[in-house]
Amino acid sequence: MRRASWFNVTSLTLGFAFLYLPMVLLVFYSFNSSKLVTVWAGFSTKWYGELIRNEAFLDAAVVTLKVAVISSTLATILGTMAAYVLVRGGKFLGRTLFSGMIYAPLVMPEVITGLSLLLLFIGIGLDRGVLTIVLAHTTFSMCYVSVVVSSRLVTFDRSLEEAALDLGCSPFDAFRLVTLPIIAPAVISGWLLAFTLSLDDLVIASFTTGPSSTTLPIKIWSAVRLGVSPEINALSTIMIGVVTVGVITASLISKRRTVKAQQDLQAAERGIS
Amino acid sequence: MSQTNFSPWDDPNGKPLIRFDNVTKKFGEFVAIDGLTLDIYEREFFALLGPSGCGKTTMMRMLAGFENPTSGTMELAGKNIAGVPPNKRAVNMMFQSYALFPHLTVWDNIAFGLKRGGVPKQQIGTRVEEMLKLTRLTKFARRKPHQISGGQRQRVALARSLAKAPKLLLLDEPLGALDKKLRQDTQFELMDIQESTGTTFVIVTHDQEEAMTVASRVAVMDEGRIIQVATPDRIYEAPNSVYVADFIGDVNIIEGTVKPAGEDLYHIDWNPNQAPLLAASERPFSDGQTAHLAIRPEKITISTEQPVDAKNTAKGTVLDIAYLGNLSTYYVQLEGGQIVKAQTANTRRLSRRSITWEDQVWISWSATAGVLLDQ
Amino acid sequence: MNIRRFVLIAVPYAWLLALFFIPFFIVLKISLSDLALAIPPYSPTVKDGILNMLSAFDFENFTFLASDDLYWKAYLSSLKIALISTVLALLVGYPMAYGMARAPDEWRPTLMMLVILPFWTSFLIRVYAWVGILSNEGLLNQLLLWVGWIDAPLAIMNTTTAVYIGIVYTYLPFMILPIYAALDRLDESLIEAAEDLGCSRTTAFWLVTVPLSRNGIIAGCFLVFIPALGEFVIPSLLGGSGTLMIGKVLFEEFFNNRDWPVASAVAVVLLLILIVPITLFQRNQQRQAEADT
Fold this sequence. Notes:
The complex is a heterotrimer.
Chain A: H1 6-29, H2 46-53, H3 55-88, H4 95-107, H5 110-123, H6 130-154, H7 158-166, H8 171-200, H9 203-208, H10 216-224, H11 230-272
Helix pairs in contact in A: 1-11, 2-11, 3-6, 3-8, 4-6, 6-8, 7-8
Chain B: E1 18-27, E2 30-40, E3 45-49, H1 56-64, E4 71-76, E5 79-80, E6 91-94, H2 106-116, H3 121-134, H4 150-162, E7 168-172, H5 180-197, E8 200-205, H6 208-214, E9 217-222, E10 225-230, H7 232-237, H8 242-247, E11 252-260, E12 265-269, E13 277-280, E14 290-295, E15 301-303, E16 312-323, E17 327-334, E18 339-345, E19 360-365, E20 371-373
Parallel strand pairs in B: 3-8, 3-9, 6-7, 7-8
Antiparallel strand pairs in B: 1-2, 1-4, 4-5, 9-10, 11-12, 11-14, 12-13, 14-20, 15-19, 16-17, 16-19, 17-18
Helix pairs in contact in B: 2-3, 2-4, 3-4
Chain C: H1 3-31, E1 34-35, E2 42-43, H2 50-56, H3 60-67, H4 69-101, H5 108-120, H6 123-134, H7 139-147, H8 160-185, H9 188-196, H10 201-212, H11 214-229, H12 233-239, H13 246-255, H14 260-292
Antiparallel strand pairs in C: 1-2
Helix pairs in contact in C: 1-14, 3-14, 4-8, 4-11, 5-8, 6-8, 6-12, 8-11, 8-12, 9-10, 11-14, 13-14
């Protein structure tokens, strides 16, 4: 039986305080009525009102969501294909280069990825805007999707696919009817990851954006460079809130599922004895 | 049982369902199957038995269509099936892991193959119900695989692979994941289902007891080759090599030099301090040839006094006794140092053991008790 | 090879070649070109003909990088900052990972969620959260003044200290997760065996726990070190003008000075520096994968 020692409890408490205190303070001060962010002057939601009336932020939010939805969907399709090739593709010409290109973007500094893509877009004369951001985001997030999906595929019992073939499926049907439904949770988390990365990206978007398409991170960046702004605090609070609700819901669902699976199994085992 | 007179392999005009002709399979440099020739007949329950890595799984995967032979031909009902993909073969497989689709119910798992085959909906329903009944799973039709027990999963896997009424059913270690008690019950169930459906079964196993129980014929494999193919009793009583004798059950192997001693009878000189042994053998041996005498422990009698009319006797000391409940195995060290196992059935309860550690004993056996082997 | 398999391989392959692989050659090419007052602001271009272009290539930008000590200092200071931040993150992250691995089973999913949650929240916002805390009239200084530990506000904002705090804070989950994974797999009976054989709790920790979580430590360190080296947001927002980091230099060279050839040369050198830790990291991951099978 594990017991929580004083040392462990202390290190966890301090560690999580370090991780969460800045965000808690940010949320707290977003309800401050004073413009001076560091001086508490009473509770107010006026910065949220200002934020909603600020059309520049709304426009940026729309652009960001559009980019995130399109690029994460494309990245999920391409990334799942790439994962399948990596895990099941066997040998083909340039396999090493292929897997290198999947893993390299994960460790590549964003400034370099952004710079190289910008130079490409200028080189081929592509006007910078939503399209170029989508292309850029798809490229780096497909690699993340492919890592997530391939780690699921590696543990995937291959005999399930063989059983489908054995029972008369073509290879494509076996993928559609057996593999895809089973790896679906990994594909969905891949999509969510790609979506978050796209929402979050500042550096690559700064390189590949055009004058007409400002994303939310770029907008936030230009605001916070000048110091703390209560509107940004309000915006941050909304974003933190959405993520927190999402992550907690997801973990509750997965917890309920595990518990249910265990109960089912126990019921089944009682059933035979 | 009708198995007493079921022996198509003895019929010279019999047409095999499966024919392997000089099949070789290589994975790179590694030879998994080495020039293998084998016939399997319709309605047979055929067991491929061998240690892991002997090539039995590769053979099964070639039958299913997941691997293709490097050379040689493989025929199913007279047709060459090399290169035919698994989804185009009238062969189904029951996987070792069962490979049940976790996202589908028991019903949908069983119906999966039928739906792919374009069977009309009405017929699919009837067939699935039939399979559920056969495997006693009707109650669990709406459950998902993770909601049923291991034994039930095993039966779903069997029902699913039988649903399409394949000409040939392959079973890869079908009982390996079950505990011992359940395994024994399931063995008989498998035999019943095999008989009632009339399907040809090929089972891969490393468990010799399982192979002996279920199979009409057993092929013992080692390093990509078949060492012996025979009925279970022949495999046990008349192994063709030391390897088979040693792999199936317990055996004493005594090495010696052969000297003819009459028709089908041979003396074996095995120890300068002991009298030669007498053994009968239909297989001819030449004078002075080295041979191995294989004797099962239960064919050896152990006694405290020298037996009078036994053909083979030897004196020794009891080194160890393994009490197994129904049987006791005595490890007797002979005067030459060799250790021989002798087994007796414990037919009486509470009898005081007359033989114990360090006792001087005599072991004896008849001339036909052992098998004389040249390799 | 059938057509389906070909399409399956070719589509992601072609995408990555076009949008990841080829752009690097463009960066390399431009790093060998000269600055020009044109659009695009460099010469020669492909329009000048391939041969002319190749003959006009030179290493001028790289010699410039070597001669101007701004770049040297930026690379060295990036390495220093990344290294110190990694060590700090390890010092904070290891006890947390250890505490998680030793926590009662029913706590663990929650603790895990708490570590992952910041990862899903905006990076930019998490860095920004420190601005209000560290600035001269920020919350930390207010607190310290109120308690009476200091008489005048500490200048933390716009120093490398702020950058260390920012990097440790944002990359801490990357340090915790691999170490936790390694510690979680550690068989507790090994520690009991060590204690049974005469180790004290502390020696058992140093002789058994730490060596067995080595791969997790290495992975965590690289996962912090590699992105920290090319970091742009944290030094720009928290480090101010006094902090030199190469990612920031590159960004400014490109957007403020519009010197594309030098920016490209900076990127090429940064990549060359990164090859070493990336290869070591890959090797560690491979070893780990081999040990698992």
